[in-house]
Amino acid sequence: MKYFLKNDHAHIDCGADMPVYDEEHGCWRAGTMTVTVAHEGELTVEVVEDASDAQVLPLLTPMTLYMAFKPAERIAIKTSVDPLVQEFWAMYQLSVQLQKPTDPNLASVREAIEYLAAPVEPGPGAGILAGAERIGEILAGIPQ
Known about the structure:
This protein is of the alpha+beta class. The protein has one domain (about 1-140). Helices cover about 35% and strands about 20% of the residues. The chain has 5 helices and 6 strands. It has helices at about 60-70, 70-80, 85-100, 105-115, 135-140, and strands at about 1-5, 10-15, 20, 25-30, 35, 45-50. The chain has a 3-stranded antiparallel beta sheet with strand order 2-1-6, with no helix packed on it. Strands 3-4-5 form a 3-stranded antiparallel beta sheet. Helix 1 (about 60-70) runs antiparallel to helix 3 and helix 4 (about 105-115) packs antiparallel against helix 5. The protein is globular and about 40 Å long.
């Protein structure tokens, strides 16, 4: 069984960990993942019995992924001293160099984008994206 947090823009794969809303901290928690939203009603939990029923996102060309970030987000990513953000940027640059797309369905890609959206405090997170709704927009390659 797989769990997802979803709304009109986001479809966040929580894997086998059932997401639970943490009222005290105003965020969703699933295993080691934390997703912060403005208020509880913004995301709902979807249960998928068969993983093949899960939404599969198309591969993102380097330019599609780049344009899914807002200019201020791109600048923050490029200038970050956070090792996880630097690793994300290195992965992106490698995809450009090799002319290979990024698979938004991979757990490592989703986790990297979720990290960019997570606030620095209470952390861990980079605090680069405006909010959790940006995760789904970026993974879907929606240009900004």
